[in-house]
Specification:
Layout (H helix, E strand, L loop, with lengths): L1 E7 L7 H14 L4 E7 L11 H4 L3 E2 L5 E2 L2 H9 L8 E3 H13 L10 H17 L12 E6 L9 H14 L4 E8 L12 H12 L6 E6 L5 H10 L7 E5 L7 H7 L2 H8 L10 H15 L3 E8 L9 H13 L3 E8 L9 H16 L2 E4 L8 H13 L4 E4 L1 H13 L7 E2 L9 E5 L13 E9 L5 H5 L5 E8 L1 E3 L4 H6 L2 E7 L5 E6 L5 E4 L14 H10 L3 H6 L7 H5 L7 H4 L7
Parallel strand pairs: 1-6, 1-7, 2-5, 2-6, 7-8, 8-9, 10-11, 10-12, 12-13, 13-21, 14-15
Antiparallel strand pairs: 3-4, 15-18, 16-17, 16-19, 19-20, 20-21
Helix pairs in contact: 1-3, 1-9, 4-5, 5-6, 12-18, 14-15
C-alpha cells in the first residue's frame, strides 16, 4: 500500500480536497486502484449536526455516514463509493480509545495522546486503506489522505505526530507528503509573496514531516522566479514545486498537475508500476474541461434555499446541476435565492430584496428547492413552488423540497388551507407531512433515515422512470426525519399529483410527479450525492432538459441514461454538438 498525505498551510479552505481528488484521478488514470481518507480535527463524531454555514453541506454516503463535503469531491472525481470510516475525526478517535480503555484493553496503563491516540490513528488508516471502494471489490493500491485544517493548529497536532511516526512504519518508498500552501499577491505591489509558504514548510518540518511536493495555490499563474525562490528556501528541487492557479473549473486541476510532471515524479518516488503517460481517462477529463470553457448556450436555474450566503452549503447540488448542464452542452447559470426574501415584507430594504428575488425567480428557466431543516424560509419556498406549478416552470424538489411541494398542493389544490408538516406545526389539522415513527428526538446525531435505500416505481407512466433507463427500481441516498403522510396520498392522486415511487414496503412516498406539467418532480432522496461528471443524476438531468425545452425529444428517442458513452469516442476535432446526442434542435 502506498500512502499520500496532503497537508495544508497558511489558510484553511485552500483547496486541499480538490488537490487530493485530482491526484487520485491522475493515479487512477494510470491504472491504479485508489481510495481516499479525510481527517477532520474537530471533536464532533461526524458532520451530521453541523450548520451548513460551519463546514458547508453534510455529504451522505451509501452506508449512512454523514461526513465532510470533501468526501463528495473524492467520490465524484474517482467514481468510487466510500464509507463513514473514510472520514476520521478527533471525536471518533477519542471515542474509540476511551471505549477500549473502558473495556480494559490497556491493562491498567495510563492512556495518553502518545502512544495511544497516535497509534489508533495509524491503525485506523491502515485498516481503512484496504477496504475496496470500486465496483470490482478489489483492494486499493493507493490511499490519498487529506489532513484537514492548517499546519500549526493545536487540534491537528496529534494527527501530525501520528504521521510523523507512520512515515517510518510505512517506509519511505511507500509514503509521500504533499503540502498545499498559499502564495498571496497583494494588490498594493502586485508581487507574489513566498514568505507564508516558507513559514508553513518550516512549521511542518519542525513537527517532523518534510514535504515531497509543494503545491502553491495562487489567484494568477506563478512566475518561474517565484518557483525557484520557493525551491531554494523550502529545501526541495524546482520540479517538486507545483503551481495551481485559480481556473474556470475544477476539471482543469488534474490536467495542470499532469502537465507539470506529477506522474513521472510519483512513478519514481513511490516506485509505481505505471507508464509516464496517462490513459484515456485523463484525456476525457481534458476534453471535458475544454468543452466546459467553450460552451455558449446558457441555462439558468433558480436555487431557492435558506443557506444561500455560502455556496458550499449546496456543493453537491451545484455539481449535479453542472454535470447535467455539461451533458446537454449548456453553461449553468445558477442563481441563489434566499427563500426568506420571497416572503413579502413592509420594510424598505427587505422590499427591495423581495423584488430582486422575485425578478430572479421569474427569469429562471427552471426552479430547484433543495433539502433543509427548520421553519425559517419555508413560506418563501412554498411561494416559489406555487409559481413553478401554476406557471408551468420546470421544477425539482429534493427532500424538504418534495415535502413542501405536497404541502403547497394540499393548500392550493385540495383547499386544505392549514395543511402543513408536523415539523413546522405539530398541531395542524391536515398533517400531510409527518414525523417518522423511528425518529428519536432525544438524540440528534445519526437518528434520521440515512444512506442508500431502494425506491420502487409503481407505474410505467413516469418521467423519472424513463430518465433512469426504465428500471423497475433505483437506489439513492436519503437523509430525512419526516415523510409524506401515506394515509392521505389518495386525495392528492385524485387531483393529479401522482406518487410514482415508494419504498420496498410501499409505505413511504419517494417520488412525486404532477400531471399536465412540463416537469414537476419531487424526490425524497438526495440524487445529487451520486451524480458524477460523466454520469449526471437523472432527476437533475431531467430538470435541465426540461429547462432547455429538450426533455420530450430526449424521451421520444428512448435514450438510456448513459452519458458516459458520449465521452468514450471523443476526438480532438469534435464539436460540442457532436459529442452529445442532445441538443435544442433534436
Amino acid at each position: 500500500m502506498k500512502y499520500i498525505l496532503v497537508t495544508g498551510g497558511v489558510i484553511s479552505g485552500i483547496g486541499k480536497g480538490i488537490i487530493a481528488s485530482s491526484i487520485g484521478t491522475i493515479l487512477k488514470s494510470c491504472g491504479l486502484r485508489v481510495t481516499a481518507i479525510k481527517i477532520d480535527p474537530y471533536i464532533n463524531i461526524d458532520a451530521g449536526t453541523f450548520s451548513p454555514y460551519e463546514h458547508g453541506e453534510v455529504f451522505v454516503l451509501n452506508d449512512g455516514g454523514e461526513v465532510d463535503l470533501d468526501l463528495g469531491n473524492y467520490e465524484r472525481f474517482l467514481d468510487i463509493s466510500l464509507y463513514k470510516d473514510n472520514n476520521i475525526t478527533t471525536g471518533k478517535i477519542y471515542q474509540h480509545v476511551i471505549n477500549k480503555e473502558r473495556h480494559g484493553d490497556y491493562l491498567g496503563k495510563t492512556v495518553q495522546v502518545v502512544p495511544h491516540i497516535t497509534d489508533a490513528v495509524q491503525e485506523w488508516v491502515m485498516n481503512q486503506a484496504k477496504v475496496p471502494v470500486d465496483d470490482d471489490r478489489k483492494e486499493p493500491q493507493i490511499c490519498v489522505i487529506e489532513l484537514g485544517g492548517t499546519i500549526g493548529d493545536i487540534e491537528g497536532m496529534p494527527f501530525v505526530e501520528a504521521f510523523r511516526q507512520f512515515q517510518f512504519k510505512a517506509k519511505r518508498e511507500n509514503f509521500c507528503n504533499i503540502h498545499v500552501s498559499l502564495v498571496p499577491q497583494p494588490n498594493a505591489t502586485g508581487e507574489q509573496k513566498t514568505k507564508p509558504t516558507q513559514n508553513s514548510v518550516r512549521a511542518l518540518r519542525g513537527l517532523g514531516l518534510s514535504p515531497d511536493l509543494i503545491v502553491c495555490r495562487s489567484a494568477k499563474p506563478i512566475e518561474m522566479a517565484v518557483k525557484e525562490k520557493i525551491s531554494m528556501f523550502c529545501h526541495v528541487e524546482p520540479e517538486q514545486v507545483i503551481f495551481i492557479h485559480d481556473v474556470s473549473s475544477t476539471y482543469r486541476v488534474p490536467i495542470l498537475l499532469e502537465e507539470q510532471g506529477i506522474i513521472k515524479y510519483f512513478k519514481q518516488r513511490l516506485n509505481l508500476p505505471i507508464d509516464d503517460q496517462p490513459s484515456d481517462l485523463l484525456m476525457k477529463w481534458k476534453k471535458m474541461a475544454d468543452r466546459y470553457e467553450r460552451l455558449l448556450k446558457v441555462c439558468s436555474i433558480a436555487l431557492v434555499g435558506k443557506y444561500t450566503k455560502l455556496s458550499d452549503c449546496y456543493a453537491s447540488v451545484f455539481k449535479a446541476l453542472e454535470h447535467s448542464a455539461l451533458a446537454i452542452n449548456h453553461k449553468l447559470d445558477l442563481m441563489y435565492i434566499d427563500s426568506t426574501e420571497l416572503e413579502h415584507s413592509t420594510e424598505v430594504e427587505n422590499s427591495v430584496k423581495y423584488h430582486q428575488a422575485w425578478h430572479k425567480l421569474c427569469k429562471a428557466d427552471g426552479i430547484l428547492v433543495p433539502g433543509g431543516f427548520g421553519i425559517r424560509g419555508t413560506e418563501g419556498k412554498l411561494q416559489a413552488i406555487s409559481w413553478a406549478r401554476t406557471k408551468k416552470k420546470p421544477f425539482l424538489g429534493v427532500c424538504l423540497g418534495m415535502q413542501l411541494a405536497v404541502v403547497e398542493f394540499a393548500r392550493n389544490c385540495l383547499n386544505w388551507k392549514d395543511a402543513n408538516s408536523t415539523e413546522f406545526d405539530p398541531d395542524t389539522k391536515n398533517p400531510v407531512v409527518i414525523d417518522m415513527p423511528e425518529h428519536n428526538p432525544g438524540d440528534m446525531g445519526g437518528t434520521m433515515r440515512l444512506g442508500k435505500r431502494r425506491t420502487v416505481f409503481k407505474t410505467q407512466n413516469s418521467v423519472l422512470r424513463k430518465l433512469y433507463g426504465d428500471e423497475t427500481f433505483v437506489e439513492e441516498r436519503h437523509r430525512h426525519r419526516y415523510e409524506v403522510n401515506p394515509e392521505l396520498t389518495h386525495c392528492f392522486e385524485e387531483k393529479g399529483l401522482k406518487f410514482v415511487g415508494h419504498d420496498t414496503e410501499g409505505n413511504r412516498m419517494e417520488i412525486i410527479e404532477l400531471e399536465n406539467h412540463p416537469y414537476f418532480v419531487g424526490v425524497q432522496f438526495h440524487p445529487e450525492f451520486s451524480s458524477r461528471p460523466m454520469k449526471p443524476s437523472p432527476p437533475y438531468l431531467g430538470l435541465l432538459l426540461a429547462a432547455t425545452g429538450t426533455l420530450n425529444a430526449y424521451l421520444q428517442r428512448g435514450c438510456k441514461l448513459s452519458p458516459s458513452d458520449s465521452y468514450s469516442d471523443l476526438s480532438d476535432d469534435s464539436s460540442p454538438e457532436k459529442e452529445f446526442p442532445i441538443s435544442e434542435t433534436s
